[in-house]
Write a structure and sequence with these properties.
By secondary structure, the chain is mainly α. It has one domain: Growth Hormone, Chain: A. Helices cover 80% and strands 0% of the residues. The protein is built from 20 helices and no strands. α4 runs antiparallel to α8. The longest helix has 35 residues.
């Protein structure tokens, strides 16, 4: 098919008929691996914090600020990364973001002051934030509709594996070699994923949005050839696709707040802010709170590791549900269940409940947290058309990073004043507000092409 007659409808029809074969598995695997190491780096700070804070004599407020600088970098990185992905391509931003957070992670191991630690965590956050919205945008555009939710959900469930890896590295290295060795350990895998990403295609949808039909045809033909080689038979004929409107506007932020998309944008800004405020209000402090309640550093890391073992199967199950029953209402229910179990966990911690009860409460929080995260990451890029998908996902993610940035400081400030249970009640309230925004303003996206979802009212 000639690139001169290629249309967005033909691109969508040709991509939708592609079976899930070797090249899509590679695209998916590399995207998931990148997100895994995002999770590793973010959660590593929580696991090494007891050792790091003792070494640098950090106060409670300084501990909170350290997490907040990471999220400040992620907030800026998310907004810039999403917008840059719409202008310069998904893969370019993938690679730049990976290298940036690899360098920031390595440099963190060599700092000796609180101020320099904040600077390095900010730089690392820029890379981490830049990659996250682009990963899910890219997977959404490269996979057929009937698998989009499941594969993006599985990608998000890699957060659990990254958390387990961070906990395992901390247990193995921190007691003997210290927190600096833990940060150094995360550099090589990120660089390896960067090299692996050199041999995967750019999104044909993105090239069409940029008006480069020749490159769109080249990438699509290359993808089709690789699929045919993998399955050993010709591809089926593309199904007809309804007319797709592509905006000629260069004002991408203006489009986000246009009459067609403003309700979705407001909903996602609220949902992401409340979600990451709620998630990091508890998770950033969990190892430290366990240690302050009388558990050793090794025990606190070990219990969080055990709790997070359920993240992967929970995320996998949620990814399956997203394609079977939908995104919206399962996400609302999951938000509310995380809120309830956050309060229960705080009560158990304050009451010095037996270790088995503490573990059960923590596992319950993680089960529903994994499910809610899966649904939200799947859902976000589906709400926007190709021309603003990265930008929309990026500012939603940025809104969440503001919540994630404020939450550790808020917990560190409120905890000594009103106690842990009430403090976690404030955290839970944010999750309830997020659930309400999705319930009132969100729409279901399951089973529809990206273009059909984004053009509906």
């Amino acid at each position: 098919m000639s690139g001169q007659i290629l249309t967005m409808e033909k691109v969508v029809g040709r991509m939708e008929r592609l079976p899930f074969s070797g090249i899509q598995k590679k695209v998916f695997g590399i995207a998931a691996a990148g997100y895994l190491f995002d999770a590793f780096d973010i959660t590593l700070l929580s696991f090494v914090m007891p050792s790091l804070s003792a070494d640098l004599n950090l106060t409670g407020v300084e501990i909170g600020l350290l997490f907040s600088f990471t999220f400040l970098g992620m907030m800026i990185g998310s907004g810039l990364g999403g917008a840059m992905a719409d202008y310069f391509g998904r893969l370019k931003v993938f690679k730049i973001s990976l290298l940036l957070f690899a360098v920031g992670t390595a440099a963190t191991a060599f700092v000796s002051t609180f101020e320099m630690l904040c600077v390095m965590r900010f730089i690392t956050g820029l890379g981490l934030g830049g990659e996250q919205p682009v990963v899910f945008t890219y997977v959404s555009e490269m996979m057929p509709s009937h698998l989009r939710g499941r594969l993006n959900g599985i990608t998000q469930s890699m957060w659990g594996l990254g958390t387990l890896l961070a906990a395992g590295i901390s247990l193995a290295l921190v007691p003997t070699w210290g927190w600096r060795a833990a940060f150094l350990s995360g550099v090589l895998p990120a660089i390896l994923v960067w090299f692996m990403r050199r041999d995967i295609p750019e999104s044909p949808r993105w090239f069409m949005m940029k008006g480069d039909k020749k490159r769109a045809e080249e990438e699509l033909a290359w993808l089709e050839k690789r699929v045919e080689e993998s399955i050993g038979r010709p591809l089926p004929e593309p199904q007809p696709v309804e007319k797709i409107a592509v905006s000629a506007s260069n004002n991408k932020y203006g489009m986000l707040f246009s009459s067609q998309y403003i309700k979705r944008t407001i909903m996602l800004l609220i949902a992401w802010f409340c979600w990451l405020f709620g998630m990091w209000g508890l998770n950033a402090w969990m190892p430290t709170l366990l240690k302050q309640s009388g558990y050793s550093m090794v025990a606190s890391i070990g219990y969080v590791l055990i709790m997070n073992l359920v993240w992967i199967p929970s995320g996998m199950f949620a990814s399956y549900l997203s394609d079977k029953i939908g995104r919206k209402w399962p996400m609302v229910i999951a938000f509310l269940l995380v809120a309830i179990h956050t309060v229960i966990y705080g009560w158990a911690l304050v009451s010095h409940m037996p270790l088995s009860v503490m573990l059960g409460c923590g596992i319950s929080v993680i089960i529903f947290t994994a499910g809610a995260s899966c649904f939200l990451y799947v859902y976000t890029p589906e709400n926007y058309p190709t021309e603003i998908r990265g930008t929309g996902s990026g500012i939603a993610n940025s809104s969440g990073r503001i919540g994630g940035m404020l939450a550790p400081v808020a917990v560190g400030y409120l905890y000594p004043i009103i106690g842990l249970t009430k403090t976690l009640g404030v955290v839970a309230l944010a999750l309830v507000i997020g659930a309400a925004a999705i319930a009132l303003l969100g729409k279901e996206t399951r089973g529809e092409s990206l273009e059909k979802v984004s053009q509906s009212g």
